[in-house]
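It would be a great kindness if you could assist me with a short task in structural biology. Thank you for your consideration; the sequence and its tokens are set out here.
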Amino acid sequence: MRNENSKIKVGISVGDLNGIGCEVILKTFEDVRMMELCTPVIFASTRTISQQKNNLGMELTFHGIDSASRAIDGKINVVNVWKETPNISYGKETDEAGLYAIRSLKAAVGALKKGEVDILVTAPINKKNIQAEDFNFPGHTDYLAKELEGESLMFMVTDSLKVGLLTDHVAVKDVAHSITKKLIQNKVGIIEKSLKMDFGIRKPKIALLGINPHSGDNGVIGKEDDEVLKPTITEISNTGKLVYGPYAADSFFGSDNYRQFDAILAAYHDQGLIPFKTLSFGQGVNYTAGLSKVRTSPDHGTAYEIAGKGVADPGSFKEAIFTGIKIFKNREEYEDLTKNPLRKQKVRASR
């Protein structure tokens, strides 16, 4: 168990160097109060961070190190993953930027696995230019599922709204065929465990959205809801889990029905992320639930259109750090309580 007064080490991958990743990272730690909350460890190089800082006209100091294990509290630590100086072409998709995004990510994940950092916060990548012989994944989530123990769930979260996905980076034409009884059971299990362990919700209430418009209208629009989703929800509910649905996605958020649940499980990417970002953009966090380690990221992409202009809002990145720290502490408490029944009884008695 960690000393509760020690600072949590936040490992940070810089993402696409031509996007706004470095800008939102540096702006986050311009706020000196962040240093009281955690110890940042950025995986890049001092040359690259200096270049980004100078390009953006920012004033802050940082500490170069060769290993995350040498990070110093009270400083912005930069692990020198590379020695050369990559070309920066703000707003452009280049193979070079993709290569360095991968190198930063791999170094950060390696440190996370070794326990040299406590949590991982990832700046946005470009899913196209990161593709390589040794990196063939559609995004962070799939890579982390391979590297870290557990089954992953893309979970978009704020304090008041949490949306998970049955399928994430899957083409729309493949969604219905991808949703099976086993997949639904697995994702419901992951989201329920995460709500308990990561967010401290003792008896979570979960809603599932329909696959087809109007949840299939009793088979008129599609049969998947009646043949796969509904019977599986019933079966899961019979085990005592508070799982409901399927709900028609078009009216679920507009009617404020979502406020009745601790989390919503959407059938596919845009069905969940469009309402989430509409309601929470700039304050939302992308959390990868179901893994042995804590990883969060902001709810936006590389934002090439504003890269290098100094106008990027660091709000979501800062929230990603706050959320990661909260989850890390919640997990510590959950683990302690579940391993120590006597303390658990004392905590209940004191409430």
Remarks:
- Residues 205 and 242 are 5 Å apart (CA to CA).
- Residues 315-339 form the longest helix (25 residues).
- The radius of gyration is 21 Å.
